[in-house]
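Bug #77: duplicate submission created two jobs. Keeping one. Sequence:
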Amino acid sequence: MTSQTVQRPTDGIVLAITFQYYRDLPAAIAFYEDILGLKLAIDQGWSKIYKIDGQAHVGLVDEKRGMQKWAAAKTVQICLRVPDVDAWYAWARSQNVAGLSKMFDSDELGIRAFAMEDPEGYQIEVQTAKPGH
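Kept job's structure:
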């Protein structure tokens, strides 16, 4: 018997998808489409995959059908880096999104940012890099 070394594939990653699980999938869909303006990339029925940018995607899954289940404690945060965080903050305020934080600056991280929550409590941070970062 010959020994064959198996190597990690080097042909790249096609998509990066973070899946989140929802009790009320239609409310999540409305938030990601209407508030964040994301476009549906892949419609799997009970799983909707939205393109954030480039190869980054977020998947919204009906927790009754997905591999995971909805949980009250959310340990995942989506962070969106944008050119104008102040414009996004004004938009979020005008839409009365849940969990909207105050705008904050972090010299340590080199960002200006705020956070908000989607309809089921996942936190979304929106940030702009400060000059030089």
